[in-house]
Amino acid sequence: MSESARERVFTGSDSLDPGAEDRSADALAERAARNASSLGMNDLRPRQFSDYIGQRDVVNSIQIAVEAAKHRGDTLDHALFHGPPGLGKTTISQIIAREMDTTLVHTSGPALERPADVVGILSNQKHGDVLFIDEIHRLSYAVEEYLYSAMEDFRVDFITGTGAFAKTINLPLQKFTLIGSTTRAGMLSPPLRERFALTYHLDYYSDDEIKQVVTRSAMILSVPIDEDGAVVIAKRSRGTPRIANNLLRRVRDFAQVRGDGTIDAEVAAEALRVEGVDELGLDRLDRLYLETLCRQYGGGPAGINALAASANEEVQTLEDVVEPFLLKIGFILRTPQGRRATSAGMGHVGDDGMRGGQGALIW
Ligand code: ADE
């Protein structure tokens, strides 16, 4: 792999062992420790498929596509990743670029405001480059249209000048790979969605997988943690590695200030209580949502705009960040009439939650 390819995808140097495939806990921990200095203290993301925990079906399928493309000396087909935030869509894309020995150019739907932005980026792609567009569902239609011919025929046609001076320029592009990432696959227009040959859904991780993520990250951060401590953090991470790593950092801080620096179950539980994370991993915003639905709207149905206004939050934050996990654990339902709290959701708020806001909520 060339130095420039590494530098554009990741910061810091690279001393990973690309041949390593042993996925045993010991091997993962050993490689994590070996790579710690090269990753930088805060970079906990795995840098090769063999270090990636969870999403096995997705990773296996991508590995085959990557190997096959490399074998043919071809570029990888365009790929779309969808699923809730924090599950590894960006990380997997970075690993793909690394394993394809190429450069990842990172941009996002909202950043590509004008057609000129997207034409500029596309015309700068080199053969095999990976163009990663985060929040691809937020591309404007005008910008999206340029991607159709770029993805299919590796060319863009655009018009310069106006009126009698207008002329169409056909710009051939290098063959590149587009990776789109979205929390809202349903918001992608069919013509764009159909141009991705590879489509993957990332789902929440199991507690055991998150425990492995926590253990690996603690090793990289050189934080002593016992198995029970890792289990407590894992169970409160909402099946999401990004949350697990954030909670691990908060628990580490707590352990260093209030304890001897070691994380066990007791330290982890106390630290997360102080952070406002309950035993199911619901944080203040999750509970505010549930409380609003149960107390102000009597358990629903309530429209998302009304809930967002009452909770003083963005609709998009509630829809993308809060609701997917509450849906997954069966605390709420999305019905045609609006959002409803289930009896489990109402139980979590406590009986008082259904009595028009009387009494204390039990978290
Ligand atoms: N850090 C964040 N996500 C991870 C994953 N899926 N595997 C290993 N480490 C991670």
Number of domains: 4
N-to-C span: 51 Å
Task: Output the CATH topology of the largest domain.
Answer: Rossmann fold
Number of helices: 15
* Strand percent estimate: 5-15%
> Are there runs of 5+ residues with pLDDT below 50, and where?
1-21, 36-42, 352-363
Please give a quick description of this structure.
The chain is an alpha/beta fold.
Molecular structure report:
The protein is α/β, with parallel strands linked by helices and 363 residues long. It has 4 domains: 3-42, no CATH class; 53-201, 3-Layer(aba) Sandwich (Rossmann fold); 207-274, Helicase, Ruva Protein, domain 3 (Orthogonal Bundle), CATH 1.10.8; 284-354, Arc Repressor Mutant, subunit A, CATH 1.10.10. The protein has helices at 3-9, 25-39, 56-72, 89-99, 115-124, 141-153, 190-194, 207-220, 227-235, 241-258, 265-275, 284-296, 304-311, 315-328, 343-349, and strands at residues 79-82, 104-108, 130-134, 155-160, 167-172, 177-182, 198-201, 332-335, 338-341. The protein has a 5-stranded parallel sheet with strand order 2-3-6-1-7. A two-stranded antiparallel sheet has the order 4-5. A two-stranded antiparallel sheet has the order 8-9. α5 (115-124) runs parallel beside α6 (141-153), α9 packs parallel to α11 (265-275) and α12 (284-296) crosses α13 (304-311). The relative contact order is 0.10. Mean pLDDT is 87; it is low at 1-21, 36-42 and 352-363. Bound molecules: adenine. Adenine binds next to α8.
